[in-house]
Amino acid sequence: MTDAVAKAATEEARADAKEGMTYLESVPMRIVTLWLPLGLIMLILLFPFYWMALTSVKPNAQLIDMEKHNPFWVVEPTLDHIKKLLFETNYPTWLWNTMYVAAAATFLSIFASVLAAYAIARLRFRGAQTVGALIFMAYLVPPSILFIPLASVIHFYGLFDSPLALILVYPTILIPFSTWLLMGYFKTIPFELEECALIDGASRWQILTKIIVPLAVPGLISAFIFSFTLCWNEFIYALTLTTSVQNKTVPVAIVSELVDGDVYRWGSLMAGALVGSLPLVVLYAFFVEHYVSAMTGAVKE
Amino acid sequence: MASVQIRDVRKSFGAVEILHGVSVPIEDGEFVVLVGPSGCGKSTLLRLLAGLENITSGTISIGGRVVNHVHPKERDIAMVFQNYALYPHMTVAKNMGFSLMLRGASKSEIQQRVQRAASILGLEKLLERYPRQLSGGQRQRVAMGRAIVREPQVFLVDEPLSNLDAKLRVAMRTEMKELHQRLKTTTVYVTHDQIEAMTMADKIVVMHDGVIEQMGAPLDLYDRPVNQFVAGFIGSPAMNFLNGKIRANGSAYVETASGDKLPLKTLPSGMEGQEIVYGIRPEHFELGEGGLSADVVVVEPTGSETQIVARIGDQEVIAIFRERQSVKPGDKISLRPRADVAHLFAKDSGKRI
């Protein structure tokens, strides 16, 4: 008897639920609310990549003549552009430069940021808040204003036109952001863990290296990805601080070295951009989960 | 193991003084419970003992050595935190061995001592797990284990059971008491739960607003609270307080505003006619003729006993009876306070008379 009553009640509840939110799940509703906007966004985001990939494999004849050939498709794709890029230009050097500069600048910045962020977040010294705010202010000064004074500083130290110039200049944009990101992350690590470590006999340095840094790995990864991407794509400093062909990075080199006078060699240009963005795609593919969780989450015990 | 002396300790945060001169002598091997409502300064005192905060004035000594300016790691203490503070990225074994590792102990020694602590607490099977894979009670045990491994002079324990469910709390309470009886390490235990204090302590220190209200053995505090605060804080349900005036008319009694007569064993000398607070514990009421007439408000049977909330005049009291009672809300009953266990407190200062 009671079973039957309970069953009837759950049936009723189910029917209720059907009338509640389920109408949102009808097919036309989902098309309008979900698939259509999603499709549009995907189209806008992915079309440039498609165009880039398409152009890099199009023979020159098809590239220029849009009357005879469908501009959105390719017949008889060719690898000529990529071959030319890799074997007839300094592209491998540029790629190596980019990677080397980005990696070095990123490690330098993250090392500095970890120390700065920990100090601001946890060593309750006088003016910690102000220092934090000032670091953030530095982030707000755009490179287009800073590049002229920085160029003269680099000149002064005789580092002009060397990878070291970029490695030392990039942290000016990377450290403020990474410091803020890590500060936020460090603040989510419970205080008690540090106090406990203190009683366990750890020094400040041991607390930082054995407790805080291992727990902040997701935060470090997102700071790393952010910094690395920024270095990789950086244009204005790379343009002003490097001049010789063998010292350029990919973003600067492809626009300056792959344009003959006023002739844009679109095929090679796009191939250069495509190959240049692949390492980042791989990096993101590996760490996207950490990146998202660090931007949104905290340490869970 | 060591004795701990806290002498006239004060602590201010900025202009606000949190502890107003606190002195507690703790003997070697004693289990001392600091108890009080939140904000009374009990946790601050524990943190001062641990060395996580600096003392403003006064001295703390552990084992005869003044440790006011001694770094936490040199105090030879172990602390169990309220939320356990287990290192989430280390296994149970690593968590327990962390302090030994920092001290530079050899791998075999760490393993041996972790094993021994684990066997005391029944954690052998969990050593390779991470804290997130443990239940609340297990985490609690690991936190205890981490303290035991170090074999410190003093255990400091900060509200360790407050995150556990009621049943587990009772079980862990017994376990911790048993552990203390086995290890005999001096323990300072902070809680806001007076039942934990009563059941576990050798000595209870009741704190309120940064001062010590009373210090002593659990039953002494229960039987002879020095003031109204301690009387109301120790014991659950709390002691009933009834306002009235002392009268001596043949025998001594306290007369409430509604004219009810509360019996007294003896007449406090020279107090006749004075305003007073009459304290009587819920279990010290008897049902029967010749008592105070009361209206039953709520009846709460718990199985083992029956709680009756009743109104005497305009004041509400709680009474507890071991026997089952067949009264209903609205009934009139006659409650007889036992004069021999009644307490009297001064109306203005709250001090025991």
General description of the model:
The complex is a heterodimer of chains A (301) and B (353). Chain A has 301 residues and is mainly α. Helices cover 76% and strands 1% of the residues of chain A. Chain A has a two-stranded antiparallel sheet. In chain A, α5 packs parallel to α8. Chain A is flat, with a radius of gyration of 27 Å. In chain A, 31% of the residues are buried. Chain B folds into two domains: 4-233, Rossmann fold, CATH 3.40.50.300; 240-346, Nucleic acid-binding proteins (OB fold (Dihydrolipoamide Acetyltransferase, E2P)). In chain B, β9 (203-208) and β10 (211-216) form a beta hairpin. In chain B, α2 packs across α3. The model of chain B has no long low-confidence stretch (mean pLDDT 91). The chains are: A mainly alpha (301), B alpha+beta (353).
SSE blueprint and pairings:
The complex is a heterodimer of chains A (301) and B (353).
Chain A: H1 2-20, H2 27-56, H3 60-64, H4 80-88, H5 91-122, H6 128-140, H7 143-156, H8 163-169, H9 171-187, H10 191-200, H11 204-215, H12 217-233, H13 236-241, H14 250-257, E1 259-260, E2 263-264, H15 266-296
Antiparallel strand pairs in A: 1-2
Helix pairs in contact in A: 2-15, 4-15, 5-6, 5-8, 5-9, 5-12, 6-9, 9-12, 10-11, 12-15, 14-15
Chain B: E1 4-13, E2 16-26, E3 31-35, H1 42-50, E4 57-62, E5 65-66, E6 77-80, H2 92-102, H3 107-121, H4 136-149, E7 154-158, H5 166-183, E8 186-191, H6 194-200, E9 203-208, E10 211-216, H7 218-223, H8 228-233, E11 240-249, E12 251-256, E13 261-263, E14 275-280, E15 285-301, E16 306-312, E17 315-321, E18 332-337, E19 343-346
Parallel strand pairs in B: 3-8, 3-9, 6-7, 7-8
Antiparallel strand pairs in B: 1-2, 1-4, 4-5, 9-10, 11-12, 11-14, 12-13, 14-19, 15-16, 15-18, 16-17
Helix pairs in contact in B: 2-3, 2-4, 3-4
